[in-house]
Design goal:
There is one protein chain. The protein has 126 residues and is mainly α. It folds into two domains: 55 residues; 68 residues, no CATH class. It is built from six helices and two strands, in the order H-H-H-E-H-H-H-E. Strands 1-2 form a two-stranded antiparallel ribbon. The longest helix has 31 residues.
């Protein structure tokens, strides 16, 4: 996802920086706009990408597919878009508490992070 977001941010940021260096006040707005567009792409793009991919027949994002993993519910079934959405946003909580939600993977019986416990999901080998 960052492969898509980074170039957009760079384009808008570069336009704003170039305008700022020339002393043009209106061009500084492009830098702010670029930051806003980047943020929106990052939040909504990553959510839609993860939720669609993990709830699809692939049951995994590209990275998980490369490593031969898939996301399932607790019974091994494909998860819904809603559950994938919950899992995605629960990852924010896992990260906000000093990444303890991710560290939990190493200490739980079924290797679940906080986001997996909250969403009722498992990451398994395919």
């Amino acid at each position: 996802m960052r492969v898509v977001v980074a170039p957009v941010g760079m384009i808008f940021g570069a336009l704003g920086l170039a305008g700022g260096m020339m002393g043009g006040f209106p061009h500084r707005g492009l830098a702010i706009l670029g930051g806003g567009v980047t943020f929106i792409l990052l939040v909504f793009g990553s959510w839609l990408y993860e939720a669609f991919m993990e709830s699809s027949s692939y049951q995994a994002t590209l990275g998980k597919m490369i490593f031969g993993m898939k996301v399932t519910d607790l019974n091994g079934n494909r998860i819904s878009f809603e559950r994938a959405t919950g899992r995605h946003f629960a990852k924010w909580l896992s990260g906000m508490i000093l990444f303890i939600g991710y560290i939990m993977v190493g200490f739980t019986e079924r290797k679940q992070g906080l986001h997996d416990l909250l969403a009722g999901t498992l990451v398994r080998r395919a």
